[in-house]
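Deliverable D4.2, example record:
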Amino acid sequence: MTKEPVTSQARYLLQRTRLLERRNKRVRAMLAYREVIQSVCLAIVAVVCSQTVWAAPVSGTFTAERSCPAYVSKNKQTNPDSAQIAPGQSYPAFEANKSDNPDWYRIRLSSADPAERWVSVDCGRFQASGPGGGEGGHGPSGDRCDIAGQSDGYVLALSGQPAFCESKPDKPECRITDSAAYQARNFTLHGLWPNKKSCGTRYGFCGEVKNQEHDFCDYPEVRLNTAAVNSLAQVMPSVGAGSCLERHEWHKHGTCQTEWSDDQYFELASDLTRQFNESGMAYFMNRRIGREVRTEDFLSRLAAILGSGARERVKLGCKDGLLVDVEINLPAGIDSGADLEALIAQAAPKVGSSCGESFRVDPIGQAGH
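Output generated by the structure prediction step:
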């Protein structure tokens, strides 16, 4: 047998082996390239998805109510140039962190670099552009909460003045310690609040004033006629003391109703307050000054006097074991001179209490003691 056939066969096998090795290298390179492309695509998809899930386009303005930082990244809270929004200034808003009840809005702040910044919803109010636009806290497409005449009910808010003054002893009206004063033996008027269910507690400032003042006397004066002032001063002690609660109540709440003038609004609120006191609820509390009162006993007396459904339409607020707030639901339609008991019967339920099983009834004059 000659060696030539063997040599030719070996040469063929060697060439075949090298060809397969080159082909395998190309296949491995292609697989590696495919893995890189897949990784890049996944990264791109992740970025796109994160933008889709965590951002919602809006169109409107964000008006600052206090100074707040404007972040490049809301999650990392990066603010390289210490940029801030200024109270009273409005900024174009183009994005929210979510479509329903957003916590953050993205605005353009021309003085910052980059100009696109995130600000917390707690720092101001968003108002969408165009008709039906959304406003602060209700999502980009929610109803506005500063348009008058849209209330679906009212809340008559009353205060236990001696208890209130124990928590706010520096208020001018809390310097009154006369046991014969009206507020010593009667609930006082906090306010009559138009309510819009979809807005919660944010329905307010429906007039020219759009922001809350720290000092109530910084609001524009409310010019009431003499009869309205005299009537209100009895049930709202701050009127006589000069701490201007009536200004706050009118500009925040009174401007959101369209049925009454400022005089009529406060005269109605004063009348409803007197009806509550004269129904027997003030007498119930006076008999228990200096004592503990079971919350259930208070609610039972309320139902006995103002109708069986009254207890389901009242919310009690206590602080430090004292009854400070009584909030009573009333219906949307209230006529001047309307009967309080009849109004309560027409109202939607409002329950809740922070009073526990009982609360204490202190005499007037305990503020600062």
